[in-house]
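User: I'm writing a tutorial on reading structure tokens. Could you give me a worked example: one chain, its sequence, then its tokens, then a sentence or two explaining what the tokens reveal?
Assistant: Sure. Here is the example chain.
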Amino acid sequence: MTIHKNFNLKPYNTFSIEAHCAAFAEVTSVEDVQAFLRDNTMPIQLLGGGSNVLFLEEFYNRFFIKNSIEGIKIVQNTEGGDSGNSGSVLVEIGGGVNWHEFVLWTIENDLAGVENLSLIPGTVGAAPIQNIGAYGVELKDVFESLEALNVQNIDIQTFTKQNCHFGYRDSVFKNELKDKYLITKVVLKLQKTPTQLHTAYGDISKTLSEKGIENPTIRDISNAVMTIRQSKLPDPSVIGNAGSFFKNPTIPKTEFDVLKTKFPNIVGYPNDREGVKVAAGWLIEQCGWKGKRFGNVGVHERQALVLVNYGEGKGLEIKDLSQQIQASVFEKFQIRLMAEVNFL
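And here are its predicted structure tokens:
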């Protein structure tokens, strides 16, 4: 394990924000992490794919550890019963594996469950932290367990779904256990044959129809999701961004009904018996932010949920822009937007 001093983190965050840390190392095994932590005296900052962070300062007193633990393997194979179900598998994935590369692996191996989560940036280890989700599917839907290393006492601990306290883009690792564990591997339960294909959310059905596909496979759904995402979301290698900056807020149905009388075109989806998830991008667009540029930062021209760094933007500039957007949405709709991106 090579330790780099006074390291520039710009290539390791998708916003392409320039920030320096006292030291940086990529770890490829649990033993690497444990060996380092035994001797370390500096504050630790864990880093995955850098696709969900916004750097606000320099980190001259902090040691960044990038999770690069690889590996994908099937650890359990269960045959189906008399119901016609062809069975399931448990797949163990290293925390440093690129999420989308893992999704492509599932497609190649005809394993269903994460095809709707295609092209989401980041690593497998970061996926449970955020409880990533898209197009009607969340990680918790296929989650079995994970192993994580406690950065304080270097012990390995297993977390079940119940332990993780999953919520909408949320988990225990974003709250009371934030920055206390490095997720070394994740175990997901995937189906050998899809028990249910999720095509109703967003433009998936429309995209499949345009391609002339009536009986889609998991590959078809993955391709449709990629087509939709690429049409709406900018490539971080071209323009700095972290995808959706804000969560879609959930409000009581009674409040949504009142807003519907004032704003008939408001976009919302039933979330539970009493709640409606409102499209944050629609709210932001109605406040006039879509496509607006302010120096080196701005709001993307095709998707109002995406804040971008046009080149030399600073993290504080993006944070300030996000707060102005939050204030204007609250003033117009009385809805509070919450950032999905983590500020560091």
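What the tokens reveal: Residues 315-333 form the longest helix (19 residues). The chain has a mean pLDDT of 92.
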